[in-house]
User: Which sequence fits this backbone?
C-alpha cells in the first residue's frame, strides 16, 4: 500500500539508498554503470538499432535525441533488473525541440513507462560498465 503512493523515481531512490547504507559490500556492485544499452525501432522502415549511450551524453536515432542520465543493474544475488533514466527529445523540422519522454525505463517491463511516439519505439536492454584498459603482454 505504501509503495503504490510513491512515484517510480522515489522508489528507486529509496531502494538504492537503503542498500548503500546497510550493505557496504553490496554498494560496490550497485554503482551506476557508464553506458546505457538501448534498442530503437523505426516503425516506418522496421529498422531496429542497438545504441550504446554513455551516461551524461547524447545519441541520435532518426529525429530523436536520446540522453542517458543514469543506469543501474542489480547485483547478481538479486533478481536481474536494469533501470535507466532517460530524456528523449524529438527534433522537429522547424528547429523546435519537443520533449517526448523523461523518466525511468525498466528493461523487464518496457510497457511500464514507455516512449509514446508515432514513429519510434525505444526501450532499455542493459547497462555496461567501462572496464579498466587491459594491455596485452606483447605491447
Assistant:
Amino acid at each position: 500500500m505504501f509503495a503504490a503512493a510513491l512515484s517510480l523515481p522515489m522508489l528507486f531512490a529509496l531502494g538504492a539508498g537503503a542498500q548503500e547504507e546497510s550493505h557496504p559490500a553490496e554498494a560496490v556492485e550497485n554503482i551506476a554503470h557508464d553506458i546505457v544499452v538501448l534498442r530503437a525501432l523505426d516503425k516506418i522502415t522496421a529498422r531496429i538499432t542497438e545504441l550504446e549511450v554513455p551516461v551524461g551524453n547524447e545519441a541520435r536515432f532518426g529525429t530523436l535525441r536520446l540522453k542517458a542520465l543514469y543506469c543501474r543493474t542489480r547485483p547478481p544475488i538479486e533478481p536481474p533488473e536494469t533501470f535507466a533514466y532517460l530524456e528523449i527529445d524529438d527534433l522537429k523540422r522547424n528547429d523546435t525541440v519537443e520533449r517526448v519522454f523523461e523518466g525511468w525505463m525498466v528493461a523487464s517491463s518496457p510497457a511500464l513507462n514507455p516512449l509514446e511516439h508515432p514513429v519510434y519505439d525505444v526501450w532499455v536492454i542493459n547497462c555496461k560498465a567501462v572496464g579498466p584498459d587491459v594491455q596485452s603482454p606483447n605491447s
Observations:
- The radius of gyration is 17 Å.
- Residues 8-22 form the longest helix (15 residues).
- The CA atoms of residues 73 and 82 lie 4 Å apart.
- The chain is about 20% helix and 40% strand.
